[in-house]
Design brief:
The structure holds 2 protein chains of 2 kinds. By secondary structure, chain A is of the alpha+beta class. Chain A has a single domain, classed as Folate-binding superfamily (Folate-binding fold). Chain A is 20% helix and 35% strand. The longest helix of chain A is centred in the last third of the chain and has 10 residues. By secondary structure, chain B is an alpha/beta fold. The two termini of chain B are 40 Å apart. Chain B is globular, with a radius of gyration of 22 Å. In chain B, α2 packs parallel to α7, α2 packs across α10 and α3 packs across α10. In chain B, the strands form 3 sheets. In chain B, strands 1, 2, 8, 9, 10, 11, 17 and 18 form an 8-stranded mixed sheet that branches. The longest helix of chain B is centred in the last third of the chain and has 18 residues. Classes of the chains: A alpha+beta, B alpha/beta.
Chain lengths: 94, 421
């Protein structure tokens, strides 16, 4: 079991969360070329090592989190809320 | 190579069955090969075998970082079926099933292919209609398929939970020619048959670097030295992205996920079929091995990973699914569970295609179903490498299909690799 330290709820089992995907993907402008959109939607670096990824605390506070995790050992390096404003609030709370 | 037959078994009986040849050689790597296949799993070995057999190619090597049968060839649940619907896929998997039907004779190796039927349960009228559509498409293309009503199902498999299931069983979609094969025999059989046609199988030979010029690969750096190659095929599902980036080629429409499988203690004959259960997003399949163990599996672990070990929530999910359809398994003990790393592609379909490099060919993206695909995978990949152009049946199984909008999404799940299980 992976334990994820949600900035709002505290440390919880990963089974409370839903895995999103690679957090480093940036979507291009709406009028960008088909080729740019294809790269953003379908192509992934698929890192073997530490990767930034999104998790949704589905059975908790329902925040989207950005988690840095090793895809080899599953060790978690850092967790923060995806939305920068929420990240500020949760930091003030703690 | 001594052939396996009754006469040779009899003859070797006089010497205590101790004088058989080794199944494949352990050659020293040459400096250069015409064709190198990276990955000594089922797909890589089948490719080498068909290159030698169908296309009369010589001077071929298969590079394996571990040992033959130690990767996903030894980590699957051995199910063989061809109940696919999308154009390209159904021709491909039907061809694969036909190759399985004759594989033991072709390889002179008993792969223990048992056509015990693949029984996919349905639990609602709409699921039955969906199954009817899929199996009718299969029948129109010459693949067998039928629907069983509840009485037929009860007659064939009496121990399912017909009384108080949370999702009542209404019937099943059945492919009778589908079944199981023994995974170790298949990979050993391909290795032995490829070796007897002159293919060098290089174990403990990990690719650590790819030396390329502008537009092609010149040589591979390996743990057993530098090896030059005129043509290179990658067949390393699970680690495709790692090797792809070693060749400096960037991103792929693939994520690596892990899938668990489970095996119980051996019991007396209980289940004659492969039974599949899928409802409300859950996914479960079970069969009984020839030794008597119940072999089953469920969903992916739901997050990207290269770790070859599974997580506990999925153990629980799979055990719950087992109990939901076969409550008689309640007291059985689990012996082992393990996980394999797989290429999950963005539309759930595979890649057998050319690449941006002129002498590199890609075989990847096998998702959940690489085992059954391996004979045809080798067959079509060998065809691509030998003839330099994809066969009609795999013409859209390339990396460009996403940009062209011709995704081959059998499940209709969209561009999220973990949903294509």
């Amino acid at each position: 079991m992976i334990r994820i330290k949600c900035p709002y709820c505290g440390e919880r089992d990963h089974s409370e969360f839903t895995y999103g995907g690679d957090a480093s993907v940036e979507y291009p402008a709406l009028d960008a070329s088909v080729s740019d959109w294809t790269k953003a939607i379908f192509f992934r670096e698929n890192i073997r090592g530490n990767q930034k990824e999104t998790w949704h605390h589905t059975n908790g506070c329902r925040l989207w989190l950005e988690v840095e995790r090793s895809t080899i050992t599953h060790e978690i390096k850092s967790v923060k809320a995806c939305h920068p404003q929420i990240d500020k609030i949760t930091k003030n709370n703690s | 190579m001594t052939r396996f037959n009754a006469w040779n078994v009899f003859k070797n009986g006089f010497t205590g069955q101790k004088n058989w040849d080794r199944q494949w050689r352990d050659p020293v790597p040459k400096k250069e090969y015409d064709i190198i296949i990276v990955g000594g799993g089922l797909h890589g070995l089948a490719t080498a075998y068909y290159l030698a057999k169908n296309h009369n190619k010589k001077n071929i090597a298969v590079l394996e970082k571990g040992w033959i049968g130690g990767g996903n060839a030894g980590r699957n649940t051995t199910i063989v079926r061809s109940n696919y619907m999308m154009p390209g896929n159904h021709e491909f998997y039907e061809h694969s099933l036909k190759l399985w039907e004759d594989l033991s004779h072709d390889l002179n190796y008993n792969v223990m292919f048992s056509q015990r039927a693949h029984v996919s349960l349905f639990h609602s009228p709409s699921a039955r209609d969906g199954a009817a559509r899929r199996y009718n498409v299969m029948r129109l293309h010459g693949t067998d398929g039928e629907l069983w009503d509840l009485d037929t199902l009860k007659n064939n498999i009496p121990h399912l939970n017909y009384d108080n299931a949370r999702f009542p069983i209404l019937g099943a979609a059945v492919q009778k020619r589908a079944g199981n094969a023994r995974h170790d025999s298949a990979v050993w059989g391909y290795a032995r048959a490829a070796d007897s046609l002159g293919v060098d199988i290089l174990q403990n030979c990990e690719v650590t670097g790819v030396k390329r010029s502008q537009n092609n690969i010149e040589s591979l750096e390996t743990s057993r030295g530098t090896i030059k190659a005129k043509k290179v095929g990658f067949a390393v599902a699970g680690y495709t992205s790692v090797l792809w980036q070693m060749a400096g080629l960037g991103n792929l429409p693939i994520e690596s996920h892990k899938l668990q499988a489970f095996v119980t203690e051996a019991i007396k004959p209980l289940l004659d079929h492969v039974v599949v259960y899928g409802v409300g997003g859950a996914h479960f399949y079970i069969s009984q091995s020839d030794k008597g163990s119940m072999v089953f599996g469920g969903d992916l672990d739901w997050y990207k990973s290269y770790a070859q070990r599974g997580n506990l929530p999925i153990v629980q999910d799979s055990a719950e699914a087992a109990m939901a359809i076969m409550p008689c398994l309640g007291r059985i003990r689990l012996l082992r569970h393990w996980a394999g790393v797989m290429d999950m592609s963005m539309d759930g379909s595979f890649f057998i295609c050319k690449t941006p490099l002129s002498n590199l060919y890609l075989n990847a993206g096998w998702n959940y179903g690489g085992f059954k695909a391996s004979p045809a995978s080798g067959w079509y990949f060998a065809d691509l490498i030998a003839n330099e152009q994809p066969h009609r049946n795999v013409q859209n199984h390339n990396l460009e299909r996403f940009e062209k909008g011709i995704n081959i999404d059998e499940r209709g799940a969209g561009p999220d690799p973990k949903l294509h299980g």
